[in-house]
Design brief:
By secondary structure, the chain is of the alpha+beta class. About 25% of the residues lie in helices and about 20% in strands. Strands 1-4 form a two-stranded antiparallel sheet. The longest helix has 18 residues.
């Protein structure tokens, strides 16, 4: 597995994108206002910390059909380029302040998932409840991810 054949890993790329849509590395993006701002009828004073919920943006049914379901096939046919509004998918932030490591992190995730997935199988070992998220500086699960790993 090398960076040269990452584009050939279409399914792995879709799985990584879908995982980032459901469980972004950060749960909120914050900014500080420098002047009073009117945002869709909400008045924010100057020098106020404002948070954008990445989780809420990624669960917005205006942009995603069944947004809380794991559906990697939603990322086929250039979904983002053709039908997704700007800032509807922001796992690494957006605009000119997007994460500088975005491309590297995405490449790394695809390569690691493909490499590990060739050698091991992972099966869910937890109950059927939702994964509880603990929003801190980065998003993490409250109780880990109970998995069974077996060699392929």
């Amino acid at each position: 597995m090398t960076p040269d054949n990452v584009d050939d890993l279409e399914l792995i790329n879709r799985i990584v994108r879908e995982t980032l849509q459901l469980y972004s590395p950060v749960h909120t993006i914050f900014r500080q206002t420098t002047r009073p701002v009117d945002a869709v009828g909400y008045q924010m004073p100057a020098d106020e910390q404002v948070h954008l919920s990445v989780i809420s943006a990624h669960c917005d049914e205006r942009y995603y059909d069944d947004p809380k379901s794991f559906r990697p096939d939603r990322w086929t046919n250039n979904f983002e380029e053709e039908g997704l509004a700007e800032f509807a998918y922001i796992p690494f932030g957006g605009g000119r302040r997007t994460c500088i490591g975005r491309e590297f992190a995405s490449l790394e995730a695809v390569l690691v998932l493909a490499t590990v997935g060739q050698q091991y199988r992972f099966d869910w070992a937890g109950d059927d409840t939702d994964i509880a998220i603990e929003p801190e500086i980065t998003t993490k699960t409250q109780d880990g991810l109970p998995m069974r790993m077996s060699k392929r």
